[in-house]
Amino acid sequence: MAYEERNIWASLIVGVIGVAIYTVIVLQQAASRPVAEIDWVPVMLWTIGGSIVVAILISIVWGILAGMRDPDGVGKSDQRDRDIAHMSTRVGQAFLVIAGLGVIVECAFTLDWFWIANTMFYGFALSSIVGGIASVVAYRRGLV
Question: Into how many domains does the chain fold?
Answer without folding.
Answer: 1
